[in-house]
Amino acid sequence: MFRKNKYGARKTKCALGHNHPSALEASVCQTLQLRQRAGDIKNIKYIATVHLAFGIRWKVDFSFEQRQKDDTWVMTWCEAKGFNTADFKIKLKMWREGAGPGPLELWKGNARAPKLVEIIIPKQIKES
Fold first, then answer.
1. Which residues contact 105 (CB under 8 A, 6 or more apart)?
2. How many CB atoms lie within 10 A of CB 81?
3. What is the side-by-side strand order in the sheet with 57-67?
4. Predicted structure pTM score
5. What is the pLDDT of residue 51?
6. How far apart are CA 64 and CA 27, in angstroms?
7. Where are the beta strands (DSSP E) in 24-98?
């Protein structure tokens, strides 16, 4: 028996043939591939596990290296979200407060029009 996603997401293949749990995520994957071809990013990874704090892990949709203005590369993470769950809100707050290892791109919208709504830079944790 086929089990539906409780948020209405449908498993979708992107143009490159990767399987994604939602059409929005597949669309973001295609956008990232275009950015990679343009030379803006490199080394795209799918389903990147990030350790936040207190043993909490987050399986972020994508990670990649992004070119900076000074031609250095910084590791960046990317999450495509159609619906904000309570779990997601907690992990996002942890990321903002400094538990995230680097920048996080947050994509929303739908498969036909994904939008980069925010780039979250985690606060620097002050050392005592």
1. 76, 77, 78, 79, 116, 118, 119, 120
2. 18
3. 41-51, 57-67, 73-80, 104-110, 113-120
4. 0.84
5. 94
6. 16
7. 41-51, 57-67, 73-80
Cβ distance 11 to 26 under 8 Å?
A: no
Domains (range + CATH), the chain: 12-120 (3.40.1350)
Sign of CA dihedral 12, 13, 18, 19: positive
Residue bearing the bigger pLDDT, 83 or 58? 58
Distances (CA, A) of 43 to 20, 40, 53, 73, 75: 18, 11, 25, 11, 10
User: Are the C-beta atoms of 46 and 18 separated by less than 8 Å?
Assistant: yes
